[in-house]
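Hi W., the iron/sulfur cluster complex you wanted:
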Amino acid sequence: MPQRDFTDPSADSLKVIKLDDAAQYFEDAGILPLEVTTMLVKEASYTRPSDPRYLSPSKIYPPNLCRRQIVLDSFLTYDLNPYKAWQRKEGSLWHSAFATAKAGPDWLHEVRLPDDLILADDDGRLKALAPPDCEFEDWMFTDRADELFDQGVLKTCDDGRIRLEVCPGLWMRGFVDRLSADYKKIVDHKTKAPPFSRPPDYIPKNTYDTETRDEAAYQLSAYAHMVEMCTGVANEGMWIWRFFRGCKRPEQAWRKMQVRLISRDRIWEDIKDYISPLLGWLSACYDIQQSHLANDSDPIEAIKKYIADNIPQDGHLQQMFNGQKCTKFCEHYEVCFGLETGFIDF
Ligand code: SF4
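Structure:
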């Protein structure tokens, strides 16, 4: 599987720094502190592409998902820009910081869906927990999860985790930051770079912003549908708390935004149309890889050709992440565009 090294972000042309040398190199070059690189190296060493059959609600929004990037991630070696690796890590560190403080008994925190809503009953059958304020006593079971298990819509997957099938062959599981104890409200925390593009005199009209973001709407709606499918409790409100990392203007650092509920049919249908072709592409590349390895030959050229011939450049065609160009965020940019021109070698 792909082994990642780092690139030197200060070099004019591509310069690869081996993982073992990166901490001292970036310290000496004044790029990142030794401790930070050591942490990033540890994570880069353990990064493996996830099983494409298993989806997370945070990665199902088509305009933010380049399918070619996923295939490249799975089959080709690539190197990380340490600044971008740190940016991602910074987001997840803030996220963990939020998770350590609890918001009181009305909220459940870091809820794994659907796992945390499901327990085995005395007969060993898996059933969904009814919300604590249901008309029965606490921790009563509903029959819905039973039915979903019987229909094969819920199942315990190969890795031992429970997932919900969203279209044939694709299974979803996710973490929601806050779920109200009655299962009716959802709050998620999001971090982002500060709004540098806003004019210096910009002042938010109020702290409660009803602006809707589709990416968050997709993710939170998927959580809401998973909760309803397992427990029967319909969602009554969803919000994100957005924190702008490093924002120098206190009045702009935190924003609460209401998120609209997108219908289950629409999200599940989008997953089917947009994400399910990935399974075919990944398995075709896997077959190419295995048949070459069985003959002791290098599969890279054949995989390159398959990718160039079959897999669209979604990131380029769709102008992902609110119109950002691929160069701004994709570690595979040179390889991906090299496939189109044939100039870049692996
Ligand atoms: S460079 Fe753009 S099109 Fe190519 S893999 Fe990356 S995001 Fe996708």
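The pocket of iron/sulfur cluster is lined by residues 66, 68-69, 72, 313-316, 326, 330, 332-333, 336 (CB under 6 Å).

W.
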